[in-house]
């Protein structure tokens, strides 16, 4: 992928050792996927075009039909809870508060499902967010903090996710590729967090990233609509499955 660096690789396979166990395990599992009749990807064509094109050249029966929750909301009469991919019980009580805020006024922070950090870094994030003086919606998993591990052994993600007010959004995309992200030193300092928040919310760079995110949101909505790539790929997948009985 263009503009991809070693530091952007997930930490559990970020290695230069060709004998690394986890790296080789992922490689083995990936190869095994090629023995299946089809592969489904939780993305859409425009977002991961380069990767999907390379994969399609090696394995034609791939279907980019994600995110599945949005697909079900648009096309299928299935309750969202049945297709919820979250590993944690969701707390929706924040939505009422979020609906009281002005559009594009709230900072959204989410570390994903596998990132861990020290208690010290968690506090630095908290103070940085508070010192920015912007309201924020912060997702903190129960297992986010690793107790008893030195800070340098559990650096948090280098990407900090920000968004505008999202209460009325149909689709919310956390886009780090395509220029939609800002880096932060892995040794988190509150002043760095504060500066990045202010740059994202007030600065020219932040405005540019917001505009790109909006453009990707529109592409995602087009992909999930009738005639879009997600719907087309979904129909193609169903027809392929039916043709094989």
From TrEMBL:
Family: Belongs to the UDP-glycosyltransferase family.
Annotated keywords: Glycosyltransferase, Transferase
Protein's UniProt name: Uncharacterized protein
Species this chain originates from: Gossypium schwendimanii
SUPFAM superfamilies to which the protein is assigned, alphabetical: UDP-Glycosyltransferase/glycogen phosphorylase
Top-level division of the source organism's lineage: Eukaryota
Keyword Transferase: yes
GO MF annotation terms: quercetin 3-O-glucosyltransferase activity; quercetin 7-O-glucosyltransferase activity
């Amino acid at each position: 992928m263009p503009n991809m660096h070693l530091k952007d690789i997930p930490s559990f396979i970020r290695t230069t050792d060709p004998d690394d166990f986890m790296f080789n395990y992922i490689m083995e599992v990936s190869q095994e996927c090629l023995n299946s009749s089809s592969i489904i990807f939780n993305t859409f064509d425009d977002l991961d075009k380069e990767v999907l094109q390379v994969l399609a050249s090696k394995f034609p029966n791939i279907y980019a039909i994600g995110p599945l929750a949005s697909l079900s909301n648009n096309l299928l009469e299935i309750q969202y809870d049945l297709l919820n991919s979250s590993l944690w019980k969701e707390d929706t009580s924040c939505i009422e508060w979020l609906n009281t805020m002005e559009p594009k006024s709230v900072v959204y922070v989410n570390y994903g499902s596998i990132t861990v950090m020290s208690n010290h870094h968690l506090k630095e994030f908290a103070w940085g967010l508070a010192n920015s003086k912007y309201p924020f919606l912060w997702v903190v998993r129960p297992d986010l903090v690793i107790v008893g591990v030195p800070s340098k052994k559990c650096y948090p993600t280098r990407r900090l996710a920000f968004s505008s007010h999202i209460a009325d959004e149909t689709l919310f995309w956390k886009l780090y590729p395509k220029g939609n992200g800002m880096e932060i030193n892995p040794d988190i300092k509150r002043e760095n967090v504060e500066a990045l928040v202010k740059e994202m919310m007030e600065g020219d760079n932040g405005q540019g990233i917001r505009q790109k995110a909006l453009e990707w949101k529109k592409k995602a909505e087009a992909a999930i609509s009738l005639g879009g790539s997600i719907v087309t790929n979904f129909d193609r997948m169903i027809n392929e499955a039916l043709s094989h009985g």
